[in-house]
From TrEMBL:
InterPro entries: Met8-like, NAD(P)-bd_dom_sf, Sirohaem_synthase_N. It catalyses: precorrin-2 + NAD(+) = sirohydrochlorin + NADH + 2 H(+). This is precorrin-2 dehydrogenase. Its EC number is 1.3.1.76. Pfam families: NAD_binding_7. Keywords: NAD, Oxidoreductase, Porphyrin biosynthesis. The lineage of its organism: Archaea, Thermoproteota, Thermoprotei, Desulfurococcales, Pyrodictiaceae. PANTHER family: SIROHEME BIOSYNTHESIS PROTEIN MET8. Pathway: Porphyrin-containing compound metabolism; siroheme biosynthesis; sirohydrochlorin from precorrin-2: step 1/1. SUPFAM superfamilies: NAD(P)-binding Rossmann-fold domains, Siroheme synthase middle domains-like.
Amino acid sequence: MVRVPLWLEMDGRRVLVVGGGGVGTRRALWFRQAGAVVRVVGLSFSEELQRRARGDSGLELVELDAGDAEALRPHVEWADIVVVATDNPSVNEAVWRLARSLRRWVNDATDAERTEIVVPYTLDLYGGGLRVAVTTEGRTGVAARHARDRIRECLEGDKGLGTLYEAMWRVKPVLKRLIPRAKDRVPIYYRIDEDSEFQRAVERGSVEEALRAAARVIAREARRLGVETDADRVYEMLRSVEKPISPL
């Protein structure tokens, strides 16, 4: 089995969580935080779920016996993703089979071997501009968590990476404005990254010098493509970029 790592936009997607205990609570709140509409079904619900549901119309609790396939089926049909998270193996098996028969994506929190969606350990840097996910695909969450924490320590202490990040998020919208065709634009990112003056500025942690070096490369490449500009104008364009491009 080969799983493909993806970042998915969850806003408005429907997630059914079967099981209102500790694991079901964590998964329900995790998907809800990402913008999904979440419905939790089960015979009982954690205090935290009950408290959160009282003030959140996007988090619904439905009391029913998940072992009753006929009662559960409409809820599975409603969902885009089904989370299996009860402490009853026979119920988990029945839910998994029903969700699979209806071709719903399944996150099985009770069986890593058959889950289709893996929930990783994540970390955000630069205000969420750089996101990292780590998983052992259920083999050992302890090791995955330690790996995430070590990655955080490494990246947070890397001054050059922070400089590179800020310089390049300023470069992207300027390049898109000056050179609309992606075929012509994409190679320029690599020429900036490979430029020796740009590399030295990044190593020193100087965003100012990095932008000036990037401006020289962009102006040179733009002129080669027939776009009239100069390094000073490009530099001012880079400095005027206020925030990174939204991925959405």
